[in-house]
Amino acid sequence: MSTLALRTRPTWDLDRWVRDFFGPATAESWAAGAFTPAAEIVREGDDALVRVELPGLDVEKDVNVEVDRGYLVIHGERRDERSEDKDGRTLREVRYGSFRRSFKLPEHVTGQDIKAEYDTGVLTVRIPGAHKGRQTQRIAIENK
User: What is the torsional sign of CA 139, 132, 119, 63?
Assistant: First the structure.
């Protein structure tokens, strides 16, 4: 293997890992200022809770929660515009971007009982019964 191949291979592996983990970046997503808010899924009894960090958003105006073809889809847009006048100069900062997160739902879950609430920058979506009837089954390992 050449020295050049040794130097470029780790970069290729890192690029591939980032692409696999975050998905491919497209010109459209970069141009639109897309971002991916942090999310977690936790189990609470038979329910699943999906928590998405969306600080500073007007969730009634800028966020949609939907069930679409077996997926819980949370999407919207953040818009933040600030202006400051100091010493006769105006400093203006504008940040915006769209986001979309989707989570596969179990087949028996419909959108009818799903509830969403927003508190202190965190959107929490409760999916009742997502884990109902699901038990972990341990498989014995034979030692020969």
Answer: positive
Quick: pLDDT tens for 42-63: 999 999 999 999 988 889 999 9
Segments of the chain scoring below 50 in pLDDT: 1-12, 21-22, 24-32
Contacts of 101 (CB under 8 A, 6+ apart): 36, 37, 39, 52, 73, 74, 75
- Provide the pLDDT for residue 57: 87
Question: Where residue 102 sits, what CATH number does that domain have?
Answer: 2.60.40.790
Q: Contact 75/59 with Cβ under 8 angstroms?
A: no
